[in-house]
């Protein structure tokens, strides 16, 4: 049962993201994510100018007059959202939690999909599968996706992206568009991402917060590692401590980016202190140029 505050948050996300979809992303989404190809629609009588190679010779032989085959684009896609629910996503220092940002991004992608008559499914994961919703159409289903991403209390604390991708492989029979929404603190997932990218159109959506890169000078502070629960006291007033932290954080981010490039997946980088619309538009434009 959702609290009143959670219901307000869902409604707020619905209003904000539906405007973004109608104003910016629906057309971009359709031009970037194509259907699975052409499927047979019907046969009709041959007309002057029709391609000879489209003649259906079996029907022509039976009818005694030439018929041609007509095809239509098989537009419908399945979009799978793999959303990280580990403890590290419940962090923020500026505008919103990384988990809240993940919910908004999921809403934009899901509403874009159903606007184009595609199906949307959800897999939430930590160090285990927390929730799996099979792909469906419709606004009611998308609102449930948003509610779950916003309010689900995960049983696990750690991150296991590889297991989530293996679960996807087991439950999906056809090629999907897969968005993996995570802070990718688990860098052991390169092989699983690479395997998933061979079968699906796989996109990594990386979540960051500026405080994860730089420590402020605020004296002695107690920090907690959210996924392990380990706590320790840090003297942020020491310049060397801040420099070491910044250097290690930058190297961790470079390692993550190298891992994603090595997995051969496209990446959308978003942060909690900046609007995500620009990052999504850059991704869509990049895909359009590539096509």
Describe the structure.
The protein has helices at residues 4-32, 57-63, 98-115, 139-151, 161-171, 190-199, 239-262, 277-290, and strands at 37-45, 67-74, 78-84, 119-125, 129-136, 177-182, 201-208, 220-224, 231-235, 266-271. By secondary structure, the chain is of the alpha/beta class. The chain folds into two domains: 4-29 and 78-290, Rossmann fold (3-Layer(aba) Sandwich), CATH 3.40.50; 40-73, no CATH class. The strands form three sheets. It has a six-stranded mixed sheet with strand order 5-4-3-6-7-10, sandwiched between helices. A two-stranded antiparallel ribbon has the order 1-2. The longest helix has 29 residues, at 4-32. The mean pLDDT is 88.
Strand order of the largest sheet: 5-4-3-6-7-10
The Cα radius of gyration reads 23 Å
Number of domains: 2
Low-confidence stretches: none
Mean pLDDT: 88
Name of the CATH first level of the largest domain? Alpha Beta
Strand tally = 10
**Assigned CATH superfamily of the largest domain:** von Willebrand factor, type A domain
Strand content range: 15-25%
CATH structural architecture of the largest domain: 3-Layer(aba) Sandwich
In helices, the fraction of residues equals: 40-55%
Given helix and strand content, the structural type is alpha/beta
Largest sheet: 6 strands, mixed
List the total number of helices: 8
Structure in a nutshell:
By secondary structure, the protein is α/β, with parallel strands linked by helices.
